[in-house]
Write a structure and sequence with these properties.
By secondary structure, the protein is an alpha+beta fold. It has one domain. The chain contains one helix and eight strands, in the order αββββββββ. The strands form two sheets. The chain has a five-stranded antiparallel β-sheet with strand order 1-2-3-4-5, with helices on one face. Strands 6-7-8 form a three-stranded antiparallel β-sheet, covered by helices on one side. Strand 7 and strand 8 form a beta hairpin.
Length: about 160
C-alpha cells in the first residue's frame, strides 16, 4: 500500500478553527469596549477633579481677601439655583463676582468676565452659621459627558472658607 502525502486542511478542521476564532473575537470585542469605557471614565474623573481643585482654589483664595461687610449672596436670574452668585469687594477695592450662568462658572473682576469652567452643574454659596458672617460655604458639582449620552458628575464642597477681613 502506497501512502499519499496529505496537503491542506479537512473541512472539520476549518469549521473548528472558524468557530474558535468567532468565539475569541466576540469575547475580545466586549473586553475592548469595557476597557475603553473604563479608560474614558477614569480620564473624565481625573479631568473633573483637576478642574474642580483649580476652581475651588481660585474661589477660596479670593474669598479670603474679601471684606466681610461687602459679601452678597444671590442668584443671576430666576432660572439659576438660589445662592449661585457671590459678590464682594476685596481689600484692594476690587469688586469680584463668581456666578453660575447655565453650565458655566464665570468670574467677574472689575467688569471683565472670565469663564472658569464650562462643566458646572450646580453652584451654591451660603453662610453656614447665622451668627458669624466671616465663614462662607462653597459647594459645586461639575459634570461632563462620557459616552452614549451618559454623564459623569463630581461633587465638591469646601466648608468654612474663612474671610480674613
Amino acid at each position: 500500500m502506497v501512502r499519499r502525502k496529505r496537503s491542506g486542511f479537512t473541512l472539520t478542521e476549518a469549521v473548528i478553527t472558524v468557530a474558535i476564532l468567532g468565539i475569541v473575537s466576540s469575547i475580545s470585542a466586549k473586553i475592548m469596549i469595557q476597557a475603553n469605557r473604563y479608560f474614558i471614565l477614569t480620564r473624565t474623573r481625573r479631568d473633573l477633579q483637576g478642574e474642580a481643585r483649580g476652581v475651588m482654589y481660585v474661589i477660596t483664595r479670593n474669598l479670603r481677601e474679601a471684606q466681610n461687610a461687602t459679601i452678597t449672596i444671590d442668584r443671576l436670574s430666576t432660572s439659576q439655583p438660589f445662592c449661585s452668585r457671590i459678590t464682594f469687594t476685596k481689600i484692594q477695592g476690587t469688586t469680584m463676582t463668581f456666578e453660575q450662568s447655565g453650565n458655566q462658572l464665570i468670574q467677574v473682576v472689575g467688569g471683565k468676565s472670565h469663564t472658569l469652567s464650562k462643566n458646572l452643574r450646580y453652584l451654591a454659596f451660603s453662610f453656614p452659621r447665622s451668627d458669624d458672617m466671616t465663614i462662607v460655604s462653597v459647594s459645586m458639582t461639575l459634570e461632563e459627558g462620557i459616552f452614549q449620552g451618559q454623564k459623569k458628575a463630581l461633587h465638591m464642597a469646601s466648608e468654612k472658607v474663612e474671610v480674613m477681613n
